[in-house]
Design goal:
The protein is an alpha+beta fold. Strand 10 and strand 11 (199-208) form a beta hairpin. The strands form four sheets. It has a five-stranded antiparallel sheet. It has a four-stranded antiparallel sheet with strand order 6-9-7-8. It has helices spanning 7-18, 53-56, 75-88, 97-102, 108-115, 131-138, 164-170, 229-244, 283-298; strands at 31-32, 37-41, 48-52, 62-64, 92-94, 122-125, 143-147, 157-158, 177-181, 190-196, 199-208, 220-224, 252-260, 263-270. The longest helix is centred in the C-terminal third of the chain and has 16 residues, at 229-244. 22% of the residues are buried. The protein is globular and about 60 Å long.
Length: 302
Amino acid sequence: KNGLKNTELLSFTNESIKRNLNIFWTSPDLFCSKTNSITIFNPQTLESETLDIKQLNDKVKSVLFKYVGSINKYRSLITPVLDSFEKDFKGNFINDIDTMRFFFDKKYLLEFQEQGFNLPKTKLVTPQVSLKEILEHSQDKEHIIKPLSGELSVFFDKVSNIDENWLREKESHVSSWLIQEFSDKIWNGEYQLVFFGEQFSHGLHKNYSKKDNMPSQNDRAFNQYTPTQEEINLALELKKFVEEKLNKKIYYFRFDFLKQDEEIEILEFEAVNPGFFFTYLPSQTIMNVSEKFIDYLSSFNK
């Protein structure tokens, strides 16, 4: 039902059908761990069938993971499916399952920081950390706090906005906290670049209203953005670092960053469920991106 409302899924499906490619939909809640089977749905014929994961190898060459909704909220539902596919599926799983597991949380930012990439100064702390300890670390600079495995701005705030009760109430809901310096560059907007392998697909500039002292996901606007060569090069440098130094395979990803006066600060390297934000793109751009993406995915099936 959610898939029928998802612009990305529908666009990829329509482009695949135009090329006479066989395409199927499924969902983690259609997986049965007892029988190691999953139900797949054909959006053209409207027929469905249930197959053992090993049987799926005779029918499917590639699986694209695009989850509609919160991954962290439903990780207990998703993880058994990934485990089964990793064990028994012989085709391409995009992105690579080991890579997705690694990027389920934001610990990779510490790897980027240690390597010398420019990002807001980041520190990992335990759920039991006290406000006093956070303030001692902050050294009178404004910082933000967010869960290590956070998404969709859940439990995300400025340190100056929280108190000890806030920390204790959320302690049992997080595995760790990330403390980061707050960057005023956010008020110049957040930039997001989507890549298929080494190929740049499209860019977006996300602007926040400065009504409050924190960016709000409910008060933002998107515009298409054409990146500089320097920004493209940095994205590909991060991809190379992830693949060569962290030994994680990347099929496609989204690079999020801030910038001001040509200085770039890394925000995220999204390799689990990179949103393309089709809702904010013109119809012709959506068609172009879908064509490029299906071209890219099809290249693995030859």
